[in-house]
Design a protein that fits this description.
This protein is mostly beta strands and 62 residues long. The protein has strands at 23-29, 32-38, 44-49, 60-61. The relative contact order is 0.28.
């Protein structure tokens, strides 16, 4: 398993871990799925999950 495959979802502002209950929105495009998480500090973090059909890159990146 590579380093990017084990990356944790964390807030861009305060670096707290982002949990599933903080998930707010999802959008899928040809480049993959974007996930939006809202931290209690008020910051919004967007993650990208690559589409396996179009990419061999790690599943989730920030």
């Amino acid at each position: 398993m590579g380093m990017l495959e084990t990356i944790a979802r964390v807030c861009d502002r305060c670096h707290r871990p982002l949990e599933d209950d903080q998930f707010r929105l999802s959008m899928t495009t040809a480049a993959g799925t974007r996930g939006v998480y809202e931290c209690p500090c008020g910051a919004v973090t967007v993650t990208v999950i690559a589409d396996e059909r179009t990419s061999n890159s790690p599943r989730e990146r920030q």
